[in-house]
């Protein structure tokens, strides 16, 4: 494969060109209510040639490796039509030949489809029947195994296997016009057992959906808020991480100013990190989709803005080093600047010390959904609790945290030492490429005077 790709790129007239080719095996099915629907399995192959000439990009998407040289020529011709400036792609030192096979602890490919359907059907029964009041369910299983080959005119080649499995458990409860949902999801790049023994979680989502029907709405106004690690992680990714992506910054001079390296972003104990080389998480790869090795990038170090996330092109244009964050969702799609595993680093307080500092506040758990508009964000917690005298008390629904990300980062006045990373279903969406596997995480963090939407 390596030689075939490199031969096709030989004598290419562009300043730079690359071929990415992949094979993906997919299996997925879902229960919705009592019905099993949407079961599918299949293998897909395809790829993309990208070429850059005088700063302009051209691409050619293909299904088979036949006549690859003419596809390279098409991409180069397209790039030549577009290019009007100087090509500025950062240099990277990478070995000529890299092969990364998946290191699976428990291989999902060895388990029959019947077994998987029976397992997921059992969870669905629990979600639907564990407690009275659940109206419907969505219980979904998915797995895919991508094998990615890449070569560029710089002479480098890699092959990387990228497996993933995931499980969603969702319960829907209704009382008149009010609808509440309980959900959990699990994902792994290495281990089929992540979807086993989830009966307790299936029961938990059903119980929570029903309990939320009776829970009071969270009062609006300014509150001291403690974010559970899963909410901390989504906040780090959604509210801050996307602002760190250099393609976005390059196109938004105003945001580039606000995201200047060296700017004070919070207290000295605040560290936010993106690390595509971390462990074997679903956001982890050896190399990104331009062949750049992944790395640990400090976005905020000791409260100060320390770095941005880059592709070859954004690094070249902004005079920075590539960070291994050029990622594509699959065959036929170009890599764009994306996060990998993004988290707030652990602080020094215990969780108890963090809660002891709150006489009257809100504990925000899980993430239901949200929106960001530049530095402004609005996120809904899946559920939460009132905090009284440092103790977690009554369940609350409709917790909507809103505000300006820079102000909110400054309002973090306590960071616990219980950093947790989350590998969940779904993923990140950007530029029409969704869901990209990412993880996020953090410890419990405490916000002073955060804005909660809704009636006071
Ligand atoms: Zn995202």
From TrEMBL:
Pfam families (UniProt xref): PmbA_TldD_1st, PmbA_TldD_2nd, PmbA_TldD_3rd
Domain Metalloprotease TldD/E central: 107-213
GO cellular component: cytosol
Keywords: Hydrolase, Metalloprotease, Protease
GO MF, one example: metallopeptidase activity
BP GO annotations: proteolysis
InterPro entries associated with the record: Metalloprtase-TldD/E_C (IPR045569), Metalloprtase-TldD/E_cen_dom (IPR045570), Metalloprtase-TldD/E_N (IPR002510), Peptidase_U62_metallo (IPR051463), TldD (IPR025502), TldD/PmbA_N (IPR035068), TldD/PmbA_sf (IPR036059)
Domain called Metalloprotease TldD/E N-terminal: residue spans: 17-79
UniProt domain Metalloprotease TldD/E C-terminal: residue ranges: 221-454
Superkingdom of the source species: Bacteria
SUPFAM superfamilies linked to this entry: Putative modulator of DNA gyrase, PmbA/TldD (SSF111283)
PANTHER family: METALLOPROTEASE SLR0863, UNCHARACTERIZED PROTEIN TLDD AND PMBA
Family under the similarity heading: Belongs to the peptidase U62 family.
Entry protein name: TldD protein
């Amino acid at each position: 494969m390596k030689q075939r790709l490199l031969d096709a790129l030989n004598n290419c007239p562009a300043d730079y060109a690359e071929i990415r080719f992949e094979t993906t095996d997919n299996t997925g099915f879902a229960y919705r209510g009592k019905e099993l629907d949407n079961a599918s399995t299949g293998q897909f192959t395809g790829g993309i040639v990208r070429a850059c000439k005088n700063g302009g990009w051209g691409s050619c998407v293909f299904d088979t490796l036949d006549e690859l040289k003419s596809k390279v020529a098409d991409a180069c011709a397209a790039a030549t039509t577009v290019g009007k400036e100087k090509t500025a792609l950062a240099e990277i030192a990478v070995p000529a030949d890299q092969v990364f096979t998946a290191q699976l602890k428990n291989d999902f490919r060895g388990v029959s489809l019947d077994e998987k359907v029976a397992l997921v059907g059992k969870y669905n029964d629990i979600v639907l029947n564990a407690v009275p009041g659940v109206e419907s369910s969505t219980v979904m299983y998915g797995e895919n195994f991508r094998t990615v080959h890449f070569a560029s005119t710089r002479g480098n080649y890699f092959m990387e296997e990228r497996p993933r499995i995931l499980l969603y458990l969702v319960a829907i409860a209704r009382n008149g016009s009010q609808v509440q949902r309980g959900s959990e999801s699990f994902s792994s790049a290495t281990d089929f057992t992540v979807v086993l023994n989830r009966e307790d979680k299936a029961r938990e989502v059903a119980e929570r959906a029903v309990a939320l029907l009776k829970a009071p709405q969270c009062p609006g106004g300014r509150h001291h808020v403690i974010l559970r690690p899963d909410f901390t992680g989504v906040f780090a990714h959604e509210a801050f991480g996307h602002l760190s992506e250099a393609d976005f910054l390059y196109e938004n001079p105003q945001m580039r100013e606000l995201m200047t390296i060296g700017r004070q972003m919070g207290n000295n104990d605040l560290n936010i990190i993106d690390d595509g080389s971390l462990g074997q998480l679903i956001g982890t790869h050896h190399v990104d989709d331009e062949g750049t090795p992944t790395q640990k990038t400090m976005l905020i170090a000791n409260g100060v803005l320390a770095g941005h996330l880059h592709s070859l092109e954004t690094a070249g244009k902004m005079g920075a080093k590539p960070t291994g964050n050029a990622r594509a969702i699959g065959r036929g799609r170009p890599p764009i600047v994306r996060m990998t595993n993004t988290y707030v680093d652990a602080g020094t307080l215990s969780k108890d010390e963090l809660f002891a500092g709150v006489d009257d506040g809100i504990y925000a758990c899980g993430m239901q959904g949200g929106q960001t508009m530049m530095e402004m964000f609005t996120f809904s917690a899946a559920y939460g609790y009132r905090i009284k005298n440092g103790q977690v008390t009554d369940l609350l629904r409709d917790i909507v945290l809103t505000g300006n990300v820079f102000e909110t980062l400054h309002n973090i006045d306590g960071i616990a030492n219980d950093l947790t990373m989350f590998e969940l279903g779904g993923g990140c969406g950007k530029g029409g490429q969704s869901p990209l596997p990412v993880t996020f995480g953090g410890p419990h963090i405490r916000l002073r005077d955060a804005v909660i939407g809704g009636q006071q």
